Amino acid sequence: MHEEPLNLLGIPPEDWAATPESVRLALLSLLDIVRAQSGQLATLQTEVRELQTKLRQNSRNSSKPPSSDPPSAPPKPPKVLRGRNAGGQPGHPGSSRPLVPPERVDEPIELLPDQCPTCAQVFARDLPTLAGPHRTQVFELPVVQPHIIEYRQHTRCCPTCRQFVTAELPADAPPGGFGPRATALIALLRGRFRLSIDDTAECLAELWNLPLCSASVVTSCARVSAAIAPLDAAIAELVQAAPSRNVDETSWPTATRRGWLWVAVSPLATCFRIQQSRSPPALRALLGEAYYGIVGSDRYVAYNQLATRNRQLCWAHLIRNLRGLLEEERAATCWAARLLEQSDELFLAWQLYKGGWVDRVSLQMALLPVRQAMRGQRQEGAGGADPKIAGFSQELLKYWDALWTFSQVEGIEPTNNAAEQALRHAVLWRKSSFGSRSAAGCRFVERILSVHATCRQQGRSFFKLVTEAVRAAWAGQPGPVLSRPSAIA
Prior knowledge:
Helix content is 47%, strand content 7%. The protein contains 16 helices and seven strands. The strands form two sheets. A five-stranded mixed beta sheet has the order 5-4-3-6-7, with helices on both faces.
């Protein structure tokens, strides 16, 4: 019964037999204390390593945004100097504002030279001019005064029943004190330029002489939200029917202080949805229960419900994770370094394909040795002694085919940049607005973000589209429609 303490303490059996019972018990108690402290020390060392890993995280080696980088974060790699001056290079085609036609000019000013600067010869008034004057156009903002429409509803007394009858407003009259363009502008300042409610009211008062209070801003945004609801529903249908989508999510506080803003980006439309969770049901609500096609995303667990053949894992996230492993100074940093080198070869082949230098068959042939080398690295890491490297490798081997969908399916990108870029505007808005505090506010955020992002994709004027939607909703007429795939083609 005393073989274990004898082996640990190096005490010969005969000495242990000659040891008094009280000393034996004391040694065994000390041995139990050492065991407990060793376990605590191992736990603390693991926690310290994890905390140090978190402290080293930044936008280059994790999914954290650049705005969260601490002062201790390493600077970005310096740009490679090419010996050229900043700005446009010699031979670069210049760009300038095109001149508007003469009939669009509001105030033409004719200028004639009256004296030669070289010989001081005074020109006669009837001296002819050469063909075509040099035109310099100056754009100036006029002082804006609102166009005020006053509905004067007169009252008459019925000569038969002696009832007072007041004229009704026209069917297309605005429901409040602001017309369609003014109402759309309020929503534009709130949803596109991320102004607060008070800043929106102040901006409209300063620039457009529109007298309104904070409550009017909230009411106008609610009216725009209702007017663009059909557009938002059409956007959701376009996204759910698209053959490929990029999906991402970010936190968005709601009335319950918890919420997530999901985005799905298709080639033709972008749909935003605020959900109470970051779970698989929230993903299904975004994509639709009967979704199909390819979904580009990161490796968050909610996306694991998707079939591997219908996924494209983000290589940008993978590279950031590899950089994080490389900076941990672990024994397996050479493993991460080799994978980063192979990732560079992958993106070189992809850039050649995107630039039209090679076709898809050549792309697949170029990626074949990269795939084989990476798979060998993953298998080596999965069987290694480092638990973090092993878990990372096993996860990637499990979804191995989802890393290479971009090389087989047209229109699929190897990164999830489309969804991440779509979320940037929303993230900036969240930081200044702290989310939404009501269901109506959540719907306004969803709809205004979806319509704005889709207008950018389709090359349409966001302000004009929202104005048309508001005007049609108030008149009880069909609103504007979005472009469909057949129309784009």
